[in-house]
């Protein structure tokens, strides 16, 4: 039953041949098979992708039906990127800070009156989802009010004047509302509409010519959003009325143009290196917990690789943008349904095809090294070749003696298990572990060089 669907999608697939030439024929065949099969399996009408390797766009290709009026998608069509917009809104504030027109540590009340907690919320907390402002669109469907036009100020009048969900900086909770506030501040400080500011300062300089406000990317010439109820038929999804996404998700563009932005990130171009670093630096809560989120982007270690990423969801569209800075690579996937995991399946499959392989046992090997170092410390047999220069300095004879004298009486732990997800910090993979004994549990904070054979930079044990 799959073969007719594969043939149909293969017929509808279109590409930019000049860009695709640097992909090997075998890779191209595997990519086509992956995307075509995933679209058929997940009932996803279309996907448009871009791949960056070595700091260059090596593939831009589209598959399937973009709309009822566009039976064959092309790489030139702008898809709605929704929350991938957030990194651009955050960048606008960074640029204004460079000009001395604001400071990310300024409080919201300095620029906008009447916001709950405005005297306590810093601008950077809007961008890092730590403000406490309640999200106005947490649902994965359109609620009734979204069928009527709104304005950013109307959104704030309803959601940004509610009591805060938590004290600023104490929790991480995704909030589109915070980005609406941020967008209005950009407009007030710059004296021009947010889209106009982004167009002049980012899109034109980078040659991102396809970018358009998603409210203007609706009609017979543009991709159309689709959805499904449970396992029912695929149906056209009505777009949200004007005004609902704004600074939190208003942009549409081609995967190629989003890849141009990714290349600028890799090369530390357009913005200062300090601005890129600040955007990617993960924010910590007041209790010290790492959020794995910077200013409009996630920063994580996945399968042994650093990934700067974000996703986007709007009515009928899902997208994901993943940058692998150490590899000078990026993968962009855009789909026109919000009712399937097709975009994520395509992303994972593309990573396996176009990125250098990661040893499947890398995480296991790293965990084994953590156990080895722990056992060496508790028994006084530390192999210093497993440590970085800094760690060797830290583990003086006195420190090694204290580790051994305090841990040896406890005997061998029952297990040493990761606690939470890993994150990248200072070029090292940061991971917390719990060390379990029959009657007590210890906390272990480890920084290691990336890779299965990475050396230990930090190895700190503390009480329960």
Taken as a percent bin, the fraction of beta residues is 15-25%
CATH class of the largest domain: Alpha Beta
Q: What is the domain tally?
A: 2
Based on DSSP secondary structure assignment, what is the total number of beta strands? 16
Q: Alpha-carbon distance between the termini?
A: 57 Å
Sequence stretches where pLDDT stays below 50 over 5 or more residues: 1-21
SS element count, helices: 15
CATH superfamily of the largest domain: DD-peptidase/beta-lactamase superfamily
Strand neighbour order, sheet with most strands: 1-3-2-12-11-10-9
CATH topology of the largest domain: Beta-lactamase
The percentage helix is 25-40%
Give an overview of the whole structure:
By secondary structure, this protein is an alpha+beta fold. The protein folds into 2 domains: 80-354, 3-Layer(aba) Sandwich (Beta-lactamase), CATH 3.40.710.10; 362-462, Nuclear Transport Factor 2, Chain: A (Roll), CATH 3.10.450. Helix content is 34%, strand content 20%. The chain has 15 helices and 16 strands. The chain has a 7-stranded antiparallel β-sheet, sandwiched between helices. Strands 13-14-15-16 form a 4-stranded antiparallel β-sheet.
Q: Quick gist of this model?
A:
The protein has 464 residues and is of the alpha+beta class. It has helices at residues 2-12, 17-20, 25-42, 86-98, 123-127, 152-159, 176-190, 194-203, 246-249, 255-267, 273-280, 342-354, 362-379, 389-394, 397-407; strands at residues 14-15, 46-53, 56-64, 79-80, 212-213, 226-227, 235-236, 251-253, 298-302, 305-314, 317-324, 329-335, 415-425, 428-436, 441-448, 456-462. The chain has a seven-stranded antiparallel beta sheet, with helices on both faces. It has a four-stranded antiparallel beta sheet with strand order 13-14-15-16.
């Amino acid at each position: 039953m799959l073969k007719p669907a594969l043939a149909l999608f293969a017929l509808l697939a279109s590409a930019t041949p000049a860009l695709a030439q640097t992909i090997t024929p075998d890779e191209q065949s595997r990519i086509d098979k992956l995307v075509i099969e995933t679209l058929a399996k997940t009932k996803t009408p279309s996907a448009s992708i871009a791949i960056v390797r070595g700091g260059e766009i090596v593939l831009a290709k589209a598959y399937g039906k973009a709309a009822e009026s566009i039976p064959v998608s092309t790489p030139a069509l702008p898809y709605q990127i929704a929350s991938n917009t957030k990194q651009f809104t955050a960048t606008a504030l960074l640029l204004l800070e460079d000009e001395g027109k604001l400071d990310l540590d300024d409080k919201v009340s300095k620029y906008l009156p009447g916001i709950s907690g405005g005297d306590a919320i810093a601008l950077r907390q809007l961008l890092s989802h730590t403000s406490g402002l309640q999200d106005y669109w947490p649902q994965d469907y359109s609620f009734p009010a979204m069928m009527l036009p709104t304005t950013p100020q109307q959104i704030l009048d309803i959601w940004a004047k509610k009591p805060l969900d938590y004290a600023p900086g104490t929790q991480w909770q995704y909030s589109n509302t915070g980005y609406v506030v941020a967008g209005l501040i950009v407009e007030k400080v710059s004296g021009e509409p947010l889209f106009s500011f982004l167009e002049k300062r980012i899109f034109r300089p980078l040659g991102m010519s396809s970018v358009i406000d998603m409210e203007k990317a609706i009609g017979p010439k543009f991709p159309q959003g689709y959805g499904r109820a449970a396992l029912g038929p695929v149906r056209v999804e009505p777009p949200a009325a004007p005004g609902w996404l704004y600074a939190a998700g208003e942009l549409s563009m081609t995967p190629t143009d989003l890849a141009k932005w990714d290349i600028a990130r890799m090369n530390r171009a357009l913005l200062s290196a300090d601005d890129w670093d600040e955007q990617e630096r993960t924010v910590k809560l007041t209790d010290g917990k790492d959020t794995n989120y910077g200013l409009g982007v996630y920063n994580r270690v996945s399968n042994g690789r650093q990934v700067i990423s974000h996703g986007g969801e709007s009515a009928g569209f899902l997208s994901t943008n993943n940058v692998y800075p150490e590899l000078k690579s990026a993968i962009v996937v855009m789909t026109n349904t919000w009712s399937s995991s097709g975009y994520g399946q395509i992303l994972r499959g593309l990573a396996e095809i176009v990125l250098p392989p990661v040893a499947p046992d890398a995480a296991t090997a790293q965990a084994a090294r953590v156990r080895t170092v722990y056992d060496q410390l508790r028994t006084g047999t530390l192999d210093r070749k497993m440590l970085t220069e800094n760690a060797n300095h830290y583990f003086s004879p006195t420190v090694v003696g204290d580790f051994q004298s305090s841990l040896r009486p406890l005997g061998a732990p029952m297990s040493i298990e990761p606690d939470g997800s890993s994150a990248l910090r200072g070029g090292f993979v940061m991971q917390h572990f719990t060390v379990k004994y029959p009657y007590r549990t210890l906390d272990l904070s480890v920084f290691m060089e990336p890779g299965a054979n990475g050396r230990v930079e930090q190895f700190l044990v503390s009480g329960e």
